[in-house]
Amino acid sequence: MKRILLFLLLFVSAITFSDTLKNVSYNNGKVIGTFRENKQIIPNASVTKLGGEDLLMLSFPDSKMESGVPAFINKSDQYISKVYTVENNGMVVVYVYLKPSVTYQVTSRNGEFQVTLDGGKAATAQKSYNTPQSQNNNTNNTRITQTQSQSQSGNTSRGNKKYTIVVDPGHGGHDSGARGNGYNEKDIALQVATRLANNLRRDYNVIITRDSDFFVPLDTRAKIGNDANADFFISIHLNSSSSSSANGTEVFYFSKKDQGSYAAQVAKFENKVDGSYGDVPFSDFILNDIFYRKNQKTSQAIAESVLNNLINTTGLRRRGVFGANFAVLRGSNSPSILVELGFMNNYSDLSQYLTPDGQERAASAIGDAIRNYFR
Ligand SMILES: [Zn+2]
């Protein structure tokens, strides 16, 4: 009887997760992933523009990864800056941060996938796509070749606008953030942040860290701003609480020390996504103390102004402005704030941000507050 039960359990786990990623490695323009199962595993591949880089995402539905797979490969060269691998909700995603002009080719054979990178040699990569059978007679072999367009100028050039502002919609992709009333934080944050970015574009150079539903590691968000020499960084979030009566709006600025246990708790939740990347080096972002103090003052002042404008517009409860140690703000060289618009699990808070009108009102309240500081 026990044996049958064990067999059934094994059978159920085998159909729940069809593939198990055993390893991911990177060397000299080649990302190689191996799976435990000896069968053909074809990832879904797509590329998204991200600041000055192109983010190649390879997703493997119905997969899990073994505990020894490196979550982060920090090997910057002429092809890539790093590789992240994450598992969430029964899916494994490999994120390859491509340097500009780098083309990629994904091949897959039994139990293995390979990404071959080719810096600035688009024509060569294209050619091999046209003659795929020349190198490999395996009919199961799959090739995907993409040539990336290089229209970065609109993203980072300062034009005749004086200031550059980074708008960061919280969470994304496998990281849905807080949930409440049937909605995900990542979606509402993206909608409000997109309107804020459009609003700010009238007067500033604006970079948005994600413009659709994909995951961006927290340290990358700050790096996007630093690479563009941004003047201000604003991250948009919504809160959640175990108590349905918790409500209101609050704004945080970066502080090495959390202000009280509540601020520490919110920071802990927002930092959670990257908690698995314990070895991500934040050393690139070690804050110079003078920078830190100057930015903190400015951040705090803008945070106050953003909060005042928001509650005057929405009528939601004023929870306050707090300093907290947020991973997303930690690495930023510019003044930076994180807005918790309201509580996902409190419908009267959430309903302020569900309609296009409500989102627009919130966006212009925040935009006006920023304009008071950058003119
Ligand atoms: Zn959040």
TrEMBL record:
One of its GO terms (cellular component) is outer membrane-bounded periplasmic space. Residues 1-18 form the signal peptide. Residues 222-371 form the MurNAc-LAA domain. Residues 128-157 have a biased composition (Low complexity). Residues 127-182 are annotated as: Disordered. Keywords: Hydrolase, Signal. It comes from the Bacteria. GO terms for molecular function: N-acetylmuramoyl-L-alanine amidase activity. GO terms for biological process: peptidoglycan catabolic process. InterPro entries: MurNAc-LAA_cat (IPR002508), N-acetylmuramoyl_amidase_3 (IPR050695). This is N-acetylmuramoyl-L-alanineamidase.
